[in-house]
Amino acid sequence: MAAVSAPSGPPETLSGRERILSAAAQRFLDAGYVETSLRDLAADVGMKAGSMYYHFESKDALLIAVLERGMSLMVDAFEEVVDGFAVAGVDNAIESAADQRLAAHITAHLRALHDNRAFTAGHVTLFRTAPQVVREAVLPLRDGYEARWTALLAEVLPDRSIDERTMLRLGLFGAMNASIEWLDTGRGTVDRFARLVADQFWRGVGSEPSEESSGKGKR
Amino acid sequence: MAAVSAPSGPPETLSGRERILSAAAQRFLDAGYVETSLRDLAADVGMKAGSMYYHFESKDALLIAVLERGMSLMVDAFEEVVDGFAVAGVDNAIESAADQRLAAHITAHLRALHDNRAFTAGHVTLFRTAPQVVREAVLPLRDGYEARWTALLAEVLPDRSIDERTMLRLGLFGAMNASIEWLDTGRGTVDRFARLVADQFWRGVGSEPSEESSGKGKR
DNA sequence: GTCTATACTTGGATAGAC
DNA sequence: GTCTATCCAAGTATAGAC
After folding, report:
1. What angle do CA B165, B168, B169 make, to 5 degrees?
2. pLDDT, tens digit (0-9, with 9 covering 90-100), for B43-81
3. B175/A contact by beta carbon, under 8 A
4. Average pLDDT rounded to a whole number, residues A108-131
5. Smallest Cα distance from A94 to chain B, Å
6. CA A69 – CA A75 distance, rounded (Å)
7. Residue B182 structural domain
């Protein structure tokens, strides 16, 4: 779902639009939206500023494209996990599977977030102060993703009030998304953080550290 | 500690520098740093752009002042909690007090964050992309605050590895600080969120919801 | 598809009058 | 302390040649 027009050929033959999109995502992440000039951006892809308007109608449209791709990737990752649990069969011990479902979605969220860092990070770092037209354009996709998590938490934490679930969800989002600003990229690191977050979220830090994530004592 | 030259008189007699500082903090929060022009800012305090240079040597200096004030307020809040536990006496049941110490600091962090939203939010929303001179100027204060939390977690979670404590700390920071972007201001709301975060962080969501924060079932 | 040239706007900062 | 006037730099966007 939420298909993104994927590049067909090898990286060298990426379309002009694709190359601009990637460079923009990276620059927006590193320097911010307003701080990034179309001149610098054009230089990144070996073009001049004016030429970019053949591919994008405005700078805002460029940001919208970056954010839409980022959120589509997050949605896709969520749905993959859903599909995975669907084929696992409906007659599982649904009670004890709650923490595992949550853990799977946490891992998927963090992997998608970091694997596509350039496109996804914008939602964390620059959505809030983006031009209104940009926010409005991207909002439907974002709302859809949040709705999926809202539904997930309702299933997994049925005894909590709606207010509590909302705060828990936003707290969890905060913990995960802030990692964009400090976590080293790399699958191993991301997965370790994901396991820690999932374990901490469900069991808390008051109980014993789990066996596989740390030996006995400090290492 | 980390004393901030506080205004002396009533709000109407705030010095020009103070009024500029508050207006700047608010505008930076709402619109972002680069998006805020000195002309708009001057209009907020009933001045013209050129006049601001009597009070601040540059726009960067203005942002530095905002961020320093914000972080000083956070440090002060942390130290107040430390002092509170100090007078409570050293011969307490230190083992069982770990979760209470943590909860007190979480509440203090969230209160300080939201009570001084305009000044503190900048550290969440615009520190990352701030000009390098700004980041460098404010970094010592930030490092000091983080060091306090690092030490706190070392005392409270002695069995965890340093790596895990770092990730837990940054995850907790993420959960708390992201609330700047969604939590309604207001002491009641902030305190409820603080209790939820503290409880969730220590005990997890897998266990029963605590008695005082929710009745039985959904309400 | 990409270039050059340029129109148009806005912003940070300075100088000097009051 | 605040104003007006102004300089200078930089950015988005457009037009038209190639």
Report:
1. 85
2. 999 999 999 999 999 999 999 999 999 999 999 999 999
3. yes
4. 97
5. 14
6. 10
7. 68-203
